[in-house]
Structures are given as C-alpha cells and as structure tokens.
Amino acid sequence: MENLPNPTLLIIGFTLLGLAPFIAVLISSFVKLVVVMHIVRSALGLQQAPPNLAINGLAIILSIYIMAPVGMHVYNTFQEKGIEITDI
User: Fold this and answer.
1) Helix axis angle, 52-81 to 30-43, nearest 10°
2) Domain coordinates of the chain in residue numbers?
3) What are the Cα distances from residue 39, in Å, to 16, 28, 59, 75?
4) Closest CA relative to residue 28, chosen from 61, 54, 73, 77
5) What are the tens digits of pLDDT across the range 5-59?
6) Cβ distance 60 to 85 under 8 Å?
7) What average pLDDT does the segment 68-74 reach?
8) Within 13 Å of residue 54, how many CA atoms lie on the same side as its CB?
C-alpha cells in the first residue's frame, strides 16, 4: 500500500491529459482551416460534396504542416538553453 502514487498528482495528470485535445485545437490553426473550408464548400454550392470527416482530416494534416516550424523553433530553443522535459 505504501508504493501507491499520490492521488492528487494522478488527478492533475489525468485532467491535463483530458484537456490535451482542446489545448491542441485552441493553439493551432485547425479551427481557422475548418471554418474556411466550410465557407468555401458553401460558396461553391455544395451540400455534402466533401464530407465533414474529409474536411477535418485535411485540416489536421494542414495544421501539422503549418505548425511544424513553430514546434521546431520551440524544440531548438529548449536545446540551446539546455532545458530538459523533466525540468518543466
């Protein structure tokens, strides 16, 4: 019984893990891309031509492509300053 982890840390960890998708959507260009693609679909007069799943998938791929330089910049900054992931 003494080897059990701290319940408070577990609750905080699971909460952050549950909020990770929302944070990823909020800090990336995903929402903007989805909105623009839906507006373009409506402007073309198409009701269901590319399904929402295809639009969301394309937006995820484009978001990763757009945000990759930002992630590399953050990674390089951490490497230059000698910051480890365990220090955060």
Assistant:
1) 150
2) 29-87
3) 33, 19, 13, 35
4) 61
5) 788 888 988 998 999 888 877 888 888 999 999 999 999 888 888 898 999 999 9
6) no
7) 91
8) 6
